[in-house]
Design goal:
The chain has about 325 residues and is mostly helical. Helices cover about 80% and strands about 0% of the residues. It is built from ten helices and no strands. It has helices spanning about 15-20, 30-60, 70-105, 115-160, 160-195, 200-210, 215-240, 250-285, 290-300, 310-315. Helix 3 crosses helix 8 and helix 7 runs antiparallel to helix 8. The longest helix has about 45 residues, at about 115-160. The protein starts with 12 loop residues before the first helix and ends with a helix. About 30% of the residues are buried.
Length: about 325
């Protein structure tokens, strides 16, 4: 990020994307290795997941199958558990690596792949605690969402037009507004957990404050990411998973291409997530002390005990 901190608040969504895409050129080897070891396995797992679950679901739903359903359900549940564990682990690891690397470049701290990997264990713990609080929030959201989905089914079953319209509107708003907002809150809280001496619930609270005034930009970025990922998953499912008529070669080529596209999308998404934090800080005129951040990052490498954030330091001086 070559722009002065006070100028970041004026970035448009398009400018933010351009700024994010330009970051890897400052340390191409580091980003290449992060992409290869963390983001590629994550992206591959996201798409390949349906390749393994589809045959199991087919066997379970096939009434003529000779295999016991209990055995197939056990395999499916075990696979789903392993997949989710892998997914969330590599998602947090990728976030930790990208946020740490971008911050190091921002503070002109020497950065290598080995230094980034060395910092991950400490960063991961903070991110995981924040993730647990986000999970609690998402669990409450999902309970409410399922409740209105059941209400929608009841409205269809009883031919209640008023209840049907009401439930449909609530479900639409909950996904388009609430789900996107919680996701934006989570992504920003993840960056805060790495770069500031707060994490968990406190990071969520700080994320809520920073997001004020930039909710629209954050929503557009998150919704755009969801749409692109949805499109990629849809194409992968229709051509690779269910596209038996396309031939093996075509399915392999298309599958490889879509995995590559998703790798790029996830890398850019993580870079945008990092830059968006600095944009929000600039918008609220919360100056970032680069020397304090430099030392804070060094604390993850055993170089220095993490200092308080610039905001907290200002409060102490007041």
């Amino acid at each position: 990020m070559d722009l002065p901190p006070e100028q970041l608040q004026f970035l448009t969504t398009q400018d933010l994307l351009k700024e994010s895409i330009s970051i890897p050129k400052h340390s191409p080897k580091t980003f290449y290795l992060i992409t290869l070891t963390l983001i590629f396995p994550l992206s591959f797992a996201i798409l390949a997941h349906s390749l393994f679950t589809h045959p199991l679901l087919t066997q379970i739903t096939n009434p003529n199958s000779n295999l016991p359903h209990t055995s197939q359900w056990t395999k499916l549940l075990l696979f789903q558990f392993t997949y989710l564990l892998f997914l969330f682990s590599f998602s947090l690891l990728s976030t930790a690596a990208i946020v740490f690397t971008v911050a190091s470049l921002y503070t002109s701290k020497p950065v290598t792949f080995s230094s980034t990997i060395s910092a991950i264990p400490t960063v991961f713990k903070r991110l995981f605690i924040t993730f647990l609080w986000v999970s609690i929030t998402m669990a409450v959201y999902n309970i409410i969402f399922v409740g209105f989905a059941l209400l929608l089914l009841l409205a269809i079953d009883t031919n209640n037009v008023g209840l049907f319209v009401f439930s449909l509107i609530v479900i639409f708003v909950m996904f388009l507004v609430v789900h996107v907002y919680i996701s934006a809150l989570w992504h920003l809280a993840s960056v805060i957990s790495v770069l500031e001496p707060v994490y968990g619930l406190n990071a969520m609270k700080k994320s809520f404050e920073l997001l004020k005034g930039r909710v629209k930009m954050g929503g557009v970025l998150v919704f755009g990411y969801f749409m692109i990922c949805g499109l990629i998953n849809g194409l992968f499912g229709s051509v690779v998973v269910h596209g038996g008529n396309y031939g093996v070669f075509v399915r392999i080529v298309v599958g490889g291409f879509l995995v590559g596209v998703l790798v790029i999308v996830n890398l850019v998404g993580l870079l945008v997530q990092s830059v968006f934090y600095y944009v929000c800080k600039s918008y609220h005129h919360e100056g970032i002390d680069k020397s304090a951040l430099y030392d804070h990052l060094g604390g993850y490498l055993g170089e220095y005990v993490p200092l308080k954030s610039s905001i907290q330091m200002e409060d102490l001086d007041a």
